[in-house]
User: Fold this.
Amino acid sequence: MASNRFSIALLPPPGQSIPSSRLLLPKLSDSSIPPLFKAALEVRDKVFVQEQQCPAENEIDEDDAKSWHWVCFDMAETAGTQLGRGTIGRPVGTLRLIPAAPAEVEGEEMDREHLVKSEEDGREEGEGLRTEPRHGKTEMWDGLESFVKVGRMATLKEYRGQGLARRLLEEAISWVGKNAHRINEQGEEGSWRGLVLSHAQKEVEGWWKKMGFMTDEVLGEWWEEHILHVGMWKRVEVERGKSL
Assistant:
């Protein structure tokens, strides 16, 4: 992979430029929506909606407006994203980072509406298949410490195996360690101390382990959009003098 072929751009939280209501991805034509966010959604649409068959109406959520978004571009592709008066390459990968907020500890009990049926392993509804992780204190998280969450990581199928996901994640982790004060919603000293959470797809759990994340068995396994997920943690070094 030629190092100068790919470039990564960062979009700060787009805020109110993203409508509060959920949008169907094919209808994203509002000129007020940042081009970088549209580029991220182009990748997410192809990977999550078209390839993995996740509902398009669930792709944009309330976290997008407050998250930091990274987009990887193939600069060799001439037909790319329009930024201001210039055009950059084709968007081929993306991820987002949801900023830190005071943790809300939820009970261990699970309502019946949070159980689903899985035909793959033969278990019926009510046999412990979750649609969200268990919440509460674990060996890796005290149930109270604020954390940031990495999510919506996607690379176009034809670009996989070139190290782009690793490059995106390393870029985001490096940035957040140096800029904790910018992603801390509350702005209270010491409220984020370097803890990062990933809701990782089970089939790529090994890749996340190679990136330094550890699986939290207490969070268990759960289904998001019919895809099995696990919770994984990593603590990154927060640069001194930059946490606030």
Q: What stands out?
A: The radius of gyration is 18 Å.
